[in-house]
Amino acid sequence: xxxxxxxxxxxxxxxxxxxxxxxxxxxxxxxxxxxxxxxxxxxxxxxxxxxxxxxxxxxxxxxxxxxxxxxxxxxxxxxxxxxxxxxxxxxxxxxxxxxxxxxxxxxxxxxxxxxxxxxxxxxxxxxxxxxxxxxxxxxxxxxxxxxxxxxxxxxxxxxxxxxxxxxxxxxxxxxxxxxxxxxxxxxxxxxxxxxxxxxxxxxxxxxxxxxxxxxxxxxxxxxxxxxxxxxxxxxxxxxxxxxxxxxxxxxxxxxxxxxxxxxxxxxxxxxxxxxxxxxxxxxxxxxxxxxxxxxxxxxxxxxxxxxxxxxxxxxxxxxxxxxxxxxxxxxxxxxxxxxxxxxxxxxxxxxxxxxxxxxxxxxxxxxxxxxxxxxxxxxxxxxxxxxxxxxxx
Length: 393
Hints:
Number of helices: 13
Oligomer: single chain
Order of helices and strands: EEEHEEHEHHHEHEHEEHEHEEHEHHH
Number of strands: 14
Strand order of the largest sheet: 6-7-8-3-9-10
Structural class: alpha/beta
Largest sheet: 6 strands, mixed
């Protein structure tokens, strides 16, 4: 359905997309992932015909987007991150306008039937007469998906379709996307990795303009998980379980107890020797001791961890990262110098304030001093008066 070969795109001296190649089959839901600046948006813009490639080919259902753009674009329905809505129109007015703009021609359905079918599919029939700007975020996204479905395109490209939606709306859009895959090939771009994990059959990850991963989430997890780690909950005495694990030759001596999770039930993290699955032996030993397994799960990497590992590891081997590392080190040195300077300034400030406080004490207590001086003067006057009075007596 979609075949991209050796795709390259240059912006001056910068190579934004570097020899990207992948194939997407009919009916697949594929997650297209990449960090900011990886070339993901550029690739999607070439795929939709918005940008031309420097070299390479992009074929949609047999039509090259560069050689036969009109035929290729008829095969594509596109929902950008910001849906292209005319918010002062009603939903019905907008869909009719987009129907004309796309020059939709269907042999088996009238315009009225086609719009009714799409509105029913995306669940917006009840708001067709409402002005778009008065709709909720979730309904606006649905209207955006509806315009992408006009003309029944074979390929749907959805860019961040659930951004800004509440959990209920997200689940509804996910269900809609899964249902669309029955008749459409779907490319889903999103930074919400659990969404990709829940919806997509396959994941393509692009980094620094190149495809660095292209597989199912399960296969990627197995490939990039270095060790066979398991977390297990056992209803048994903690110390006895640790002794048993120590006697298992295929368990690496990195096992540890994670403590009591329920009454009498302890959780352990164990790691098998490379190339050996310890679950069977573990089960046999536990059953022989009549220790029930309450839970067992693999500690393989999640899609989010895989994404971070792939993009991080790929960055480590580039000159850019070394430059970044040097830059970070230089900044760290400057930061240390700044900290030392700040400490000296703080010390000088404290000393100065201390001296000022000592010198200014008489000024702060000036009123009391004046009162003391006044009292002394009055006492002197009284003594002088007493002397005078005594002398006169």
